[in-house]
Input
Amino acid sequence: MQRDLFEHRPEHARRAFAPGALWLGGFAREREHQLLATIAAVVATTPFRQMSTPGGRRMSVAMSNCGAFGWVTDARGYRYQPDDPLSGRPWPPMPGEFAALAARAAAEAGHANFEPDACLVNRYEPGARMTLHQDVDERDFTQPIVSVSLGLPAVFLFGGAQRGDKAQRLPLVHGDVLVWGGPSRRCFHGVLPVKEGVHPLFGRCRINLTFRRAG
Ligand code: MD3
Ligand code: FE
Output
């Protein structure tokens, strides 16, 4: 059951599962309480909301942002912008501990001095998913993306450079961190629908922090 996943995984295992892609198992776990409190502070001023795709579909994942830029989608398209469209105000600043965690993970993968200016906070309630896509709204593809998984487990889909390429399935649990650099940076990826469950600390959801250099 879920308990086995949480308890029997080797702490701080690491695996390069594709060129440029590094999985750091449990890397964020020792920061779990601080991360939960900081996420709560971010979404207190900048609440989670379900955005719409340019095609008019409401996303099942609810999103918030912090940092100089936030990723948004609406009828006008996908983009990064410096202000929250809900409030018209700047996104909350990137918390120092978020930036430090992302930089520490990137350094493990050989990316020195990663300074993210955008952190997308994704909330998956059971049933929420993310269909296969590429992250191509950033300027500099030599900069990695760092993702931190918290709360309920999920199955991550990791494909190739073309949408139709066969996708690997990678189970992600609370505290796992992934660094996506090199050729993996432009690969198609997604998340299968999150299964029903309650995480002991995060409750009935999965939270993913995605750190990027957008500007
Ligand atoms: C692989 N989020 O927000 S994080 C996204 O779990 C997104 O919420 C997923 O994909 C989530 O865009 C996956 C892992 C991730 C993020 C960016 C990538 C994997 C990536 C960029 C390139 C390749
Ligand atoms: Fe993505």
